[in-house]
């Protein structure tokens, strides 16, 4: 049996099955990237709920795994050379799992890098902009009298959606016929934007030609449906 006792995070979230990949997460748009990926791959794993509402991601135990204090993070007991690997940042985890299994990423080098650039598009663009829009449209920022920040993030979010819409022209998935980590990286964020953040009308989502149908295709996948609920909130 694998010994994960060297990882302080296991003191707060004990591994019941230390031979399995350990996921520390919450079903936020970033968190579900990894749970969807694991469900799509069919890899056995053990999920641990990290309640960010209770600031658990900023505890010493969690920050021993991710010093940035953000979910998700993983420990793979069967990492490179058969040694345990701890990893944070959802995009890095997606790429690692794709490379580890040889799945959900093109086999050729050019295709892999093209896929990775769209994951980076999500990480550097969609996620941050949608998150700020959500803050100013639904959460504390909603009360601000100055509406220029909201207008700024609405405009940028709408622009990014148009970039994605153009990419999807004539394609079922971001990389064409192949469903990849690029799609997985964005599904939770776009779903969140038009539902939880209540911004569907603000960004004129239904005027887009391709993104709504792509989102429906993605959300219809059984692994996506399962992954969106893992780990369930307490």
TrEMBL record:
Residues 18-105 form the GST N-terminal domain. InterPro entries: Glutathione-S-Trfase_C-like, Glutathione-S-Trfase_C_sf, Glutathione_S-Trfase, Glutathione_S-Trfase_N, GST_C, Thioredoxin-like_sf. Residues 108-234 form the GST C-terminal domain. Pfam families: GST_C, GST_N_2. CDD domains: GST_C_Ure2p_like, GST_N_Ure2p_like. It is an enzyme of class 1 (oxidoreductase). One of its GO terms (molecular function) is oxidoreductase activity. Keywords: Oxidoreductase. Coiled coil: none annotated. PROSITE patterns: GST_CTER, GST_NTER. Its EC number is 1.8.4.-. The keyword DNA repair does not apply. This is GST-like protein.
């Amino acid at each position: 049996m694998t010994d994960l006792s060297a990882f302080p995070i296991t003191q707060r979230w004990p591994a019941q099955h230390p031979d399995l990949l350990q996921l520390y997460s919450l079903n936020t748009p970033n968190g579900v990237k990894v749970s969807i990926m694991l469900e799509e791959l069919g890899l056995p794993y053990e999920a641990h709920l990290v309640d960010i509402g209770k600031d658990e991601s900023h505890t010493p135990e969690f920050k021993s795994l991710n010093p940035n204090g953000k979910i998700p993070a993983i420990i793979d007991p069967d990492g490179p050379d058969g040694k345990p690997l701890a990893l944070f940042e959802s995009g890095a985890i997606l790429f690692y799992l794709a490379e580890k299994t040889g799945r959900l990423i093109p086999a050729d080098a050019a295709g892999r890098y093209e896929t990775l650039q769209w994951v980076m598009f999500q990480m550097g663009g969609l996620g941050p902009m949608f998150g700020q829009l959500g803050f100013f449209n639904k959460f504390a920022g909603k009360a601000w009298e100055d509406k220029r920040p909201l207008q700024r993030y609405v405009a940028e979010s709408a622009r990014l959606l148009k970039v994605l819409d153009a990419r999807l022209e004539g394609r079922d998935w971001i990389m064409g016929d192949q469903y990849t980590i690029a799609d997985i990286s964005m599904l939770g964020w776009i779903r969140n934007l038009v539902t939880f953040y209540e911004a569907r009308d603000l960004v004129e989502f239904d005027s887009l030609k391709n993104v709504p149908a792509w989102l429906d295709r993605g959300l219809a996948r059984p692994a996506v449906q399962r992954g969106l609920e893992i780990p369930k909130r307490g």
